[in-house]
Amino acid sequence: MSSRRKFIKNTALGTVGLSALLSSFSASAEANKNTSKAKPVKKPLVISTWRHGLAANEEAWKQLNNGAAPLDAIVAGVGVPEADPDVRSVGYGGLPDREGKVTLDACIMDKNSDCGSVSFLQGIKHPIAVAKKVLDETPHVMLTGKGALQFALEKGFKEENLLTDKSKESWEKWLEKSKYQPVINIENHDTISMLVLDEEGNLSGGCTTSGAAWKLHGRVGDSPIIGAGLFLDNEVGAAAATGLGEAVIRTAGSAMVVELMRQGKSPYEACKEIVERIYNKHKNHKDMAYLQVGFIAVNKKGEHAGYSIRPGFNYAVYDKENGNRMEDAGFKIKKK
Q1: Would you tell me which of 53, 177, 237, 334 could form a disulfide with 299, CB atoms 3.0–4.6 Å apart?
Q2: How many angstroms separate the CA atoms of 188 and 178, rounded?
């Protein structure tokens, strides 16, 4: 009996020792595996919504290479489509509301989560630059309407007519029927959003828009709202939205994308899950007939992605390895 107990005891101790040894080998192998698969962070990286993001990326990239701070690069980058009258959804030449007035929204956010925003701003070509002034020179996050205009004028911005002849003609044609039903990927790709991962691995972002065409005078969408149209956490990643702002606001879309990345999801997985959440909340909604929402996202590793409800959403990406190019986003609803 004594010999049997001794045998069992020695066997058990041997098993414990072997298990510990195997665990050690396993942990070491896993560490080596993770190390061998670790990819260098792609930085700097600039990502922007829609085809007008190419020109915006080009300018932002040039600014970064010339030593500009990320927020200044964003202001300069998205300032290109803001000033382009042929970009009918941003800034100068943007399609007006149903009263024929061009009203603008914008926001900007830095690595420290400091942010500035303007909404329902009229007569100022570059709302993103005003938003940065709000961040830099006020204790507030958002200024709106006449107050935002007053602030802009005090800071030296020039007031001008933003309604071009082409946009006025489109508005007058719309007045013939006065039907509010945005055309998917045309009238509701109403934003340029830009995210930047700089050389230091820090994140910044900005959005600017003339909002949905033919909206009620006074309507504000998601683009100037931190957490809806734009959100970032410098420990995790950044996200920005485009499309029907009401749907993004209802779900705090960009903040939720970042939160999912915090939980370990990739940018693609995070964008996809929030798009599906928006789809499920709206599939029986009055907005569903023309609902389009898309997100772009980038994490601290430099991984990026885009995803939308319907096909047609694309985004511009600029990095050292592949230069400036367009990428198509994944989408929920397949073409019929």
Answers
A1: 237
A2: 17
Six token digits for residue 164: 């071009």
d(CA 73, CA 61): 7
Q: Which DSSP state fits 181?
A: -
What number of other Cβ atoms are within 10 A of residue 163's Cβ? 16
Lowest-pLDDT range of 11-20, 70-79, 199-208, 219-228:
11-20
Q: What is the dihedral of CA 171, 174, 180, 186, to 10 degrees?
A: -70
| pLDDT for res 12 | 47
Over the stretch 273-320, which tens digit does the pLDDT of each residue have?
999 999 999 999 998 988 999 999 999 999 999 999 999 999 999 999
Catalytic residue numbers, as ranges: 191
The tokens describing 233, both together, are 């956490």
- State the number of CA atoms in the 13 A half-sphere of 78 facing the CB: 37
User: Quick one: what percent of the chain has pLDDT higher than 90?
Assistant: 80
Structure tokens that stand for 334 in this block: 């397949």
Q: 79-90: per-residue pLDDT in tens?
A: 999 999 999 999
Residues forming beta bridges with residue 327, ordered by sequence position = 315
pTM of the model: 0.86
- State the CB neighbour count (10 A cutoff) for residue 330: 15
Q: What angle do CA 140, 195, 119 make, to 5 degrees?
A: 35
What's the pLDDT tens digit per position in 225-260? 999 999 999 999 999 999 999 999 999 999 999 999
**Looking up tokens 């919504």, which residue turns up?**
49
Pairing of strands 330-331, 304-308: parallel
- DSSP codes of every residue in 131-172: HHHHHHH-S-SEEEHHHHHHHHHHTTPPP-----HHHHHHHH
d(C-alpha 91, C-alpha 132), whole Å: 16
